[in-house]
Amino acid sequence: MHQHIHRIALVAHLFFCAAAISPFHVAVVHRHGARNTIVNVNQSGVCPSFHAPNGGCGTLTVEGKDMLYHLGLFLGSSYGAHGGLFEEAIHSSYDSTRFVSRSTDVGRTIQSGSAMIRGLFSSLEGTPQRAYPVLHNRPTSQDVALLVWNGNPSVVLWMDIMQDDLLQFLNQHTLELFEGNTTLLEEIGREIGLLDECTPSDPERWAPFQCGLDIQDAVNCALSAGFAAERYPTGVANFEQLTKILEDYNAYTMWGIDNMENGGKYQAATGTLGFVLAQEIIETGVAAAAAARTTSSPYVLLNHYSGHDTTLMPLWMTLGNDSLTNPLFGAAMIFEFYFVSADDDSSHSDSDVWVRARIGAPGQLPGDHNYTFEWYQLYCVNTDGSTYRPDAEMGCPLADWNAFVQLQGPSINIPNAGAGGASCYYDEAWMASVNCTPQDTVSTTSDPSSKICRDFRTNCINACGQHHAMTSHLDCVAI
Predict the structure, then answer these.
(1) In this model, does residue 92 exceed pLDDT 80?
(2) Using CA atoms, how far apart are residues 170 and 477, in angstroms rounded to an integer?
(3) What PANTHER family does the database record attribute to this sequence (predicted)?
């Protein structure tokens, strides 16, 4: 009886606290909305013409824009109602210094981020104060936080070295998923227009994994546009099996290849792939807390990140969840930072700043792009060093969440890496395999012959090691 009464009291306490929570800062990370397919072959035959509205491979569609517009509407209804964090700001004017947006340097993410801001400030549409979104971005080759596979020099180098072994594994795995039924892959490939890579009788062009991956993407994009059942009936009938190719590929490239081929040493050294973004979210929350606590001046209310599926998956992995391997179009994660009294839960931390999170996605079919969110149970680390999972709707002290995230960071210090930090990690054997080892002669006419070597040296000043210096031509010479 005593335990039962205690449980009722605890639930009542949590309900009361959750109902009373009023965030002082919000961060949202989302994937872009629905797009045209991105295929490896026959782009002109499979993708809409560039001359058509929203034409071209990978272009954000009307449905994709509407998805993110609805995310903005959701944020507005959640935080812009009476007494809400955004109430005054979103109904007066758009201030890009208080609603800070960042996107990858890719058209579909820039447009998605813009659509989200327009939805958030929808009450200003048709007025002189309407929102003209401001989105900041970094060059793709330097975007370590949002575009890991293109912006992290170490990941780019390592994956280039591993690609032959990776492709061999993925080809075999795709055939196993289809139980050797290459005829079915060929049939769906013909249906879509991908026979250049989906014809088993042509060994020069037959690429089982790329065939399956491109088929899945084409069907998925067609589903979001509403024409999949009519054009790709066989693909739709086998969509679940095709999606398994994508999910397994994502799992293998995100962490599986390191665990299986390298004993987990790579991410143990450099940190999980979403660590940089997670740390940035924490730092902006800390800065907002300091501003909210100490000044009456306006401060950043929303940090907004518009990215890709390859933005969300590394972030989720850093948060302790490696099972989320297929973010839907428009998928989003929201972090709320709020104040509580220090004595509300003294077993965790003496910090009065707490964080909680929710995860969700819009409807994927035309005409239904409303978002559904659920509370996400974070991993946190107590003051005694033990990991725990708090009540999802309450979250945990920011200090405890930060303690968990720090455990996912780099375990080594990269000498002379400068601002590149762990993203400039490399192994001498890697360099030798791409002909990128330091030479003891100075070249004054040409860069290193390997593109991957040039790219790595361009972004990492430590690439020549401790006993060589880099020339203006990216050569490494003895000091």
Answers:
(1) yes
(2) 39
(3) 2-PHOSPHOXYLOSE PHOSPHATASE 1 (PTHR11567:SF110), ACID PHOSPHATASE-RELATED (PTHR11567)
